[in-house]
């Protein structure tokens, strides 16, 4: 049965008799059977095939063969199991050859990397620049470093570590010294070594002060089991099989030391993860029954909507119906769980082999699963009641099928290739009959129309009744017109000029009596049809509710299993990224374990990432625990507060002394690393040089304090003076308009007049409605302030500084006098009159706004000239800086949607360029494509995903990821390219594994506000046009 299920998973063929025939032809050899099924001369399912009766020894309690992906506990069959696991990864004979060449290069590259300087175990790596990112916060769970395509290991280990009973077993594992000395088997030595490394890893996960740990030592041993060069990234089920297999063997050594050899029932791993099932059925007229042991229970996803449907499909196979000739004979089989393990793991088969493409494909269908599942309906002890309920369910589903067919006739009405809902068709006919054409009578029509109106025919009236006879009578009136109606039909037809004809089709002639009759019939028929359809829908809903409540009996809710962990895969069949959602019992919340990152999550986020159907992410493995065995699985603590505040510390104190010392040594090493890092950073800080203008180095405390405050003043004056300088032309014009006031009333009156008139001008500009081609905020700092409701004191001081600008030298006698008076008035403004910190922040915001505008305009110009690499940096920085401004108000920054749109367009263009260069044969182009991906695309994607991401951005990122994933397994792609692709994809798919910084673009200083405004107008106009923009 195990070989049959594995063969079904590899080939994707569902026909059991066809698979039986292939296994028989191959004499039970899985390799030959796969080859037989993938050859061109293979017979299609449905042709004559020889079925093989299941052997009685299959899955027996002693020498068991397991269902799909279950672990064989028989020592003699270890090599066979490893062969089956390895064969499950082969996509086809051709794909295998291509991947072998690619991964040989990858293996050589990995060997070269090993020769580089190696770090100590769990050492903090230098690319993390922030010291506070190294340390763990209290008892928060730690992450795990991804050392290269090892996210699967992190997902599995974190899920198992968060099982207190499993953690206790691993940390408490020990063997007598005599057994360690007498161990001769290579496999036994390997398993013991792996157990010791796993102990050290678990100990660090309990007591380390690091934020994440390094699993390299344990992984090196585990990876040694996968000798095939075709493997770059193992999947969750495969690694879990191997992991539990080794742990089982390691614990069996401990069991053998205390009890009879080969007694599997005492093995803690068997007790924790393995259950038994009973299969009963009839095959070719012969009844059979067999007991099987299972670990991870495989479930098909395709064709099912939720976990219970998957289980029902796995429990019942074939049509169990009596033959007409012999009512006692049935075909098919049923499975029942006779014993469930405390930890119940479901493996969701989300990959199937595409025979036409010769490679596996991922199934992205949506599959829902509950937080708590009741397993009573699948237990052998509930067999009698469940069989009755299944029979009732089958009858109800047949009723639903009949009702659905009836409803479909209403929804797809018609006899031609195009069909429509019947109520809509009736409505359309009614609308057609009610449409009137505009009348434009000809000369002859004008003479005859009065006569026609005088001799109008009496209308036909049909009484409305609900009886069939009245409806048939109305129909006969329409089909068989009376002589009066025939007279109407023979009336002269009005003429219509072609130019005046209605855009919608309409009847040429229709009387009020005809219209009333048609409208009455059509509306009544439509109401009747809609009512019939609603009745059918209500009946279907009621039957579905009955099915949903079929297993709601309290008797069938006695064995609850609570969801403990969800292992998620994002990507395609050949590559992707794994992470895990694990329920934290002490905190009563879901946590997301994504390599080095451990963050608090929610059930809503888990559903979005795990159900599938929306994007490439979906659950691949579900781990449930028996909710009635908290002491066995979820720990023994009853005090929730105590569990939250130090449950890990209590476990550390209970560890063996050597593990406690190991934790202390690692924490001491962390302190040393932090100290060394701090020393390195202090050497990089440049020494502050003393000012060249200082006459003496012996400053008093008063002078230093005064210097600090004056420095702040200089910073404020620098920004405001810069804004005054860039608007000096406008200020000069305002001064020029005060010539008469200056001559008659003096400099004070001239300043007041210029101040009032300039304020009024800017106020009116600020109130104008902006257009797509202009932004008045670029003209003047005060327009920006007024539009954002800046304080009156800030506005007045800023305007006064415009007139105090030293660059005003247009008229020596007037401009300089006004400048001197304005400066004198500025000195009169004291700290109580204006908050200088607030004043500084307003000018900083305007300075940032101009910078964002320049970055945006530069990015748009470069984009239109197809310089996508240069454009992306400007657009990304424009978006990031603009987001900080928009948090203070909607008018503080530029248009967010415009910036996001062109950032997204530029990213997609650049991704297409990089992908095209990557798949080219030229080495220089390939290198350029990889550099674009590493230096621009991936950093930009990380910035987008780690901020408030829109659906459009999310869709664009999915398009880019799918483009790169589509190159996996291509037969015509060079092996070196496949190797590089394997290195790039984890960084492309996982945006939380590392911190990436995008280089800031070259700084550009705008000239005058007029230049900036004209440049803005030109760029905005070109966006809505077609010609590229060139601004000098």
TrEMBL record:
Compartment(s) of residence: Nucleus
Coiled-coil region(s): none
EC number(s) recorded for this UniProt protein: 3.4.19.12
Transmembrane segment boundaries: none
GO BP of this protein: DNA damage checkpoint signaling; protein deubiquitination; proteolysis
UniProt entry tagged with the keyword Ubl conjugation: yes
Entries under Pfam families matching the protein: UBA_8, UCH, USP_UIM_N
Designated name of the protein: ubiquitinyl hydrolase 1
Organism of provenance: Pelodiscus sinensis (Chinese softshell turtle)
Organism placement in taxonomy: Eukaryota, Metazoa, Chordata, Craniata, Vertebrata
